[in-house]
């Protein structure tokens, strides 16, 4: 029997880009932004200095050194028993991130085959049974069942099934088997 498929976003889902970006932005801009202080803001509202933000996201080793989300590795190991996992990241906007993301995945998720890593621009073409992402712009076009991973910028959005952490992801998906 063919396994159901899951598309899993990297930044904000597998990788804790929020903490990393806040630390880099505060250092570059001399601010004291915290995760709590940006809850409910869009990324543009939270990080107002676009030139600084763009510079950070194009900085060598930014994506390579992202911290892993709590319980992500263990959760993917559990999920791969019953699902085929695809890591899908809209990486082409920041070309320097392409090789860094592949290296990051190789280090933290070595059990994900290279064939199951999709680095793209738009995710509109992704056709899996489930998609886990932190951005509505990706989930709104999901051809399967969308699952929103909580992030500061989506906290007020209520039109997708929401999960707050990887333990909740596993619980939700194990109930669908």
TrEMBL record:
<dbReference type="InterPro" id="IPR023214">
    <property type="entry name" value="HAD_sf"/>
</dbReference>
<feature type="active site" description="Proton donor">
    <location>
        <position position="11"/>
    </location>
</feature>
<dbReference type="InterPro" id="IPR036412">
    <property type="entry name" value="HAD-like_sf"/>
</dbReference>
<comment type="similarity">
    <text>Belongs to the 5'(3')-deoxyribonucleotidase family.</text>
</comment>
<feature type="active site" description="Nucleophile">
    <location>
        <position position="9"/>
    </location>
</feature>
<dbReference type="InterPro" id="IPR010708">
    <property type="entry name" value="5'(3')-deoxyribonucleotidase"/>
</dbReference>
<protein>
    <submittedName>
        <fullName>5'(3')-deoxyribonucleotidase</fullName>
    </submittedName>
</protein>
<dbReference type="Pfam" id="PF06941">
    <property type="entry name" value="NT5C"/>
</dbReference>
<dbReference type="GO" id="GO:0008253">
    <property type="term" value="F:5'-nucleotidase activity"/>
</dbReference>
<dbReference type="GO" id="GO:0009223">
    <property type="term" value="P:pyrimidine deoxyribonucleotide catabolic process"/>
</dbReference>
């Amino acid at each position: 029997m063919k396994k159901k498929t899951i598309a899993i976003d990297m930044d904000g889902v597998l990788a804790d880009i929020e903490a990393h970006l806040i630390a880099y932005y505060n250092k570059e801009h001399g601010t004291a932004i915290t995760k709590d202080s940006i809850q409910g803001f869009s990324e543009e509202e939270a990080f107002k200095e676009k030139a600084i933000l763009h510079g950070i996201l194009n900085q060598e080793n930014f994506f390579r050194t992202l911290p892993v989300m709590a319980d992500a590795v263990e959760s993917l190991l559990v999920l791969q028993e019953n699902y085929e996992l695809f890591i899908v990241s809209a990486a082409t906007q920041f070309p320097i991130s392409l090789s860094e993301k592949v290296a990051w995945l190789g280090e933290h998720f070595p059990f994900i085959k290279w064939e199951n890593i999709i680095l793209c621009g738009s995710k509109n073409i992704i056709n899996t049974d489930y998609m886990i992402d932190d951005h509505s712009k990706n989930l709104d076009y999901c051809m399967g069942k969308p699952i929103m991973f909580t992030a500061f910028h989506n906290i007020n959005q209520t039109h997708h099934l929401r999960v707050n952490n990887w333990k909740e992801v596993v619980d939700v998906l194990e109930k669908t088997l």
